[in-house]
Amino acid sequence: MGKTVIMDHALISHKIAVLRDEKTGTRDFRIIAGEIAILMSYEVFREMPTVPVKIKTPVAETEERMLSGRKPVIVPILRAGLGMMNGVLEVMPSAKVGHIGLARDEVTHQPREYYCNLPSHMDERIAVITDPMLATGGSAVEAVNLLKERGCRDIRFMCIIAAPEGLETLRTAHPDIDIYVGSLDRKLNENAYIVPGLGDAGDRIFGTE
Ligand code: PRP
Ligand code: URA
Description:
Blueprint: E1 4-6, H1 10-20, H2 26-44, E2 50-56, E3 61-67, E4 73-78, H3 82-91, E5 96-97, E6 99-104, E7 111-117, E8 126-130, E9 133-134, H4 138-149, E10 154-162, H5 164-173, E11 178-184, E12 187-188, E13 194-195, H6 201-206
Parallel strand pairs: 1-11, 4-5, 4-6, 4-8, 8-10, 9-10, 10-11
Antiparallel strand pairs: 2-3, 6-7, 12-13
Helix pairs in contact: 1-2, 2-3
The structure holds 1-O-pyrophosphono-5-O-phosphono-alpha-D-ribofuranose (PRP) and uracil (URA).
The site of uracil has 9 residues, from helix 6.
């Protein structure tokens, strides 16, 4: 069973409050979404494979631990997941990046795949999916399906806002993955938007309407 981590951090709460504010413009929204991704990354990468290494400091020899294995892959779900990608890369600059394009149908709310480009050796990499919004969960479930088809075994999903319905759907479909949530909100509305949420994350990050 994978873990579900709901962030409990004053800085993350503060920044999410600014994101939610309808008066926050594109420039600030983009910057703050990236900052939240940096802060959440500390938790997402808390557990990583490491190997012992001998280091000589100016004072003494010591045995330390450093990351081992293939580089992780960050997988933003297009478009809005791109808003978190650079934040994750600040913390894990050597990571590879794969892209999954999913658009949610406005009427059925079902995700439609329009792009998928992933690096090689996915079965040997830790994959971190980024998407600010986990609403019905359809997009997240589909993204994890695509990664599992490519052989991924260690999958971590990070979002800024989740609805209880989406979290339950993702957890049920993929009990083995780790899920990191900035804020667990109240519910979905009749248009499958998260309440209170922050509106359309993609539009707010890219300044589209
Ligand atoms: C949004 C969001 C998620 C999805 C969440 O993307 O970024 O990918 O909706 O909804 P779900 O949990 O009900 O699937 P959208 O499809 O609007 O595309 P965009 O990022 O290009 O704006
Ligand atoms: N996608 C968004 O961008 N926001 C929501 O509230 C739901 C889906």
